[in-house]
Design goal:
By secondary structure, this protein is an alpha+beta fold. It has a domain at 92-189: Gyrase A, domain 2, CATH 3.30.1360. The chain has 3 helices and 4 strands; from the N terminus they run H-E-E-H-E-E-H. It has helices at residues 7-108, 134-146, 183-189; strands at 113-121, 124-131, 150-160, 172-180. It has a 4-stranded antiparallel sheet, covered by helices on one side. The protein is rod-shaped and about 155 Å long.
Amino acid sequence: MARINLLPWREWERERKKKEFLINMGAVLVVGLGIVFAAGWYLDGSIESQNDRNKFLESEIAVLDEKIVEISNLKKKRDELLARMRVIQELQGNRPVIVRVFDELVRTLPKGAHFRQLEMKGNVLTVDGTAESNNRISSLMRNLDGSDWFAAPNLKSIKEDDKSMDYGDQASSFNLTFFQVNPNAVETEGTAGTTEPTQGE
């Protein structure tokens, strides 16, 4: 029987399998590196794209913030203009009333009395004056009470003023308050009821 030596063949087969294994390992390594590189490139691109979006959003937000500030300033200016318009309208509406009030003050002031100081807060008038006698003060209060434009005269103080240059040693200084009312408003209300004037600050 012939003998066949298989050792060289086995050695060759072992070397072939080893080379094939190394080639496969190299191929797997190359493919893995390619996948890692591709994934890194994709992630870098995504991050850069997201950063661009963030920068765009930040710029748009800054523009919107500027517009919001501008809108707030415009609203503030509008409110100021509306307030000024209301004041002007109130002044224009009250102008005839003020003229009428001063005219009525002259009508109610009796002879022998005059006002030194007049102050008006809301619908409350306060006057300081001098009269030649207490009767003149009483006449003034009756005239105020009988006027359609004034109501509820209230004498706060009265004292002798014997050093008065206008009325002599019988003169008296006085301080009184009364309310300004609008007879036209009362007529408009009709019979809905009347309310007593109240002193406001």
